[in-house]
Design brief:
- By secondary structure, the protein is an alpha/beta fold.
- The protein has two domains: 1-30, no CATH class; 33-228, Barwin-like endoglucanases (Beta Barrel).
- It contains five helices and eight strands, in the order αααβββαβαββββ.
- The chain has helices spanning 21-25, 44-48, 62-66, 100-105, 116-121; strands spanning 78-84, 91-92, 95-96, 111-114, 129-134, 137-145, 153-155, 214-221.
- Strands 4-6-5-8-1-7 form a six-stranded mixed sheet. It has a two-stranded antiparallel sheet with strand order 2-3.
- The longest helix is centred in the middle third of the chain and has 6 residues, at 100-105.
């Protein structure tokens, strides 16, 4: 199906996956009003909401809107961050790469990448256990502390293996969650604008935006004695 008209890419003949092959090499028009690539969307709803061109929309500050859940009152240090779940670093969807080099880079279970500044605020060192929580759920994972992460933002790469090394959480006592335990989907009015060129649903082309990949989350260091 990758090389069919369901998709625009191709990996035939041993080539790496290349986007827009069918459009460019086989002259198939893009699914727009003009048949060409463009950023401007001429739709009344888009104009009313100021989104005829790509714009930046910051994530909703859920903690600020709804108040702190106060799940803990023991005075333990916490940090509020933007929680992102980008595509996997060492895997394709749910499968870890099964060669030695890729497996050596994995920590054998879930991990949250965070900045050195945020880690210092909650007294956590590299590879120690942390818990991330918000009104949607909770995740137990090891901290990957690195200067490469910007302060105030954390990563939890999606589709990490939950079959090994996933402990019970201190919050609730249940098995420690996954990348989507902290996310939720928000529909925008523009998602409902259908029947208009590229705004018409097509497999892998039009659907909800990635707002569920940008969440407000609280992280704290947990006890390093874990139970499975």
């Amino acid at each position: 199906m990758i090389t069919s008209y369901e998709w625009s890419g191709s990996e035939t003949g041993g080539r790496r996956y290349s986007p827009f092959v069918i459009n460019v090499e086989h002259k198939k028009p893009w699914h727009t009003l003009t048949g060409r690539q463009h950023f401007f969307v001429q739709h009344d709803w888009m104009a009313e909401l100021g989104e005829q061109l790509p714009v930046y929309r910051p994530p909703l500050n859920v903690i600020g809107h709804y108040g702190d859940e106060h799940l803990h009152e023991d005075g333990r240090a916490e940090v509020t961050v933007r929680y992102l779940t980008p595509h996997s670093k060492w895997s394709i969807h749910s499968n870890y790469q099964d060669n030695k080099y890729m497996l050596d880079l994995s920590r054998g279970g879930p991990a949250i990448w965070m900045s050195t500044a945020d880690a210092e605020r909650i007294g956590v060192r590299d590879n120690e256990w942390v818990e991330a929580y918000n009104r949607n759920g909770v995740v137990a994972a090891r901290a990957v502390v690195t200067h490469r992460m910007p302060e105030g933002t954390v990563y939890m790469y999606h589709a990490q293996d939950r079959t090994v090394n996933v402990p019970r959480t201190e919050i609730g006592g249940r098995r420690g969650g996954m990348h989507n335990s902290l996310t939720r989907l928000l529909l925008k009015p523009t998602h409902l604008a259908g029947g208009h060129a590229q705004l018409t649903y097509a497999f892998n082309y039009y659907g909800p935006t990635g707002n569920q990949r940008d969440e407000v989350t609280v992280i704290r260091r947990r006890s390093q004695r874990v139970e499975y």
